[in-house]
Amino acid sequence: MANERTLSIIKPDATERNITGLIIARLEASGLRVIAQKRVWWKKKDAKKFYDIHKGQPFYQDLVTFMTSGPIVLQVLEGEDAIAKNRAVMGATNPVDAEPGTIRKDFAVNMQRNSVHGSDSAETAKREIALCFKKGEIVG
Ligand code: IDP
Ligand code: MG
Fold it and tell me: CA–CA separation, 82 vs 77, rounded Å?
């Protein structure tokens, strides 16, 4: 297992319900460390660029609308096997399928409003971190 970095987002459904602290506590309890964090409100162009890989999917336009509907919290998480670990703590995309004790099982509203994003590979983590943070904003 390598020490890795991954990009995490606390989504608008979670900032709206004021549960960012509850989510961060779950991430930290798993051993992940928040080494960069900022609260932003994305413009359409930001969400479109970030979710470029999903362009053409039936849920893409609604996803962009949702991700620009309120503030989000961008984070870089660091730790052993951070990419897979974060995905495990998050749970499945659809909360109905998520394991008990995962963030999405406990907090997600539905498949779209599922509270958190996490990079799914080393390549996407690198791309997503670079899109969201300047080097100097990441303090490991
Ligand atoms: P992930 O967030 O678990 O990696 P992806 O397939 O990468 O899931 O999808 C990105 C995001 O798009 C999901 O987290 C969710 O918010 C939304 N999404 C994905 N599939 C659907 C769907 O079938 N209906 C509605 N929203 C979806
Ligand atoms: Mg994904």
Answer: 7
Return the exposure string of 15-26: e unless at least 16 CB atoms fall within 10 Å of the residue's CB, then b.
Answer: beeebbeebbeb
E strand or H helix that includes residue 10:
strand 3-10
Q: What would the pLDDT profile of 101-130 be if each residue is shown by its tens digit?
A: 999 999 999 999 999 999 999 999 999 999
Distance CA 84, CA 1 (A): 10
Q: How far apart are CA 54 and CA 65, in angstroms?
A: 14
Q: What is the pLDDT of residues 11-69, one digit of tens each?
A: 999 999 999 999 999 999 999 999 999 999 999 999 999 999 999 999 999 999 999 99
Specify the residue with its C-alpha closest to ligand 1, atom 14.
93
Q: Name the residue with the closest Cα to ligand 1, atom 1.
A: 93
With a Cβ cut-off of 6 Å, ligand 1 is lined by 54, 59, 63, 93, 111-112, 114, 117, 120
Question: Closest residue (by CA) to atom 17 of ligand 1?
Answer: 112
CA 14 – ligand 1 centroid, Å? 15
CA distance 16 to 122: 30
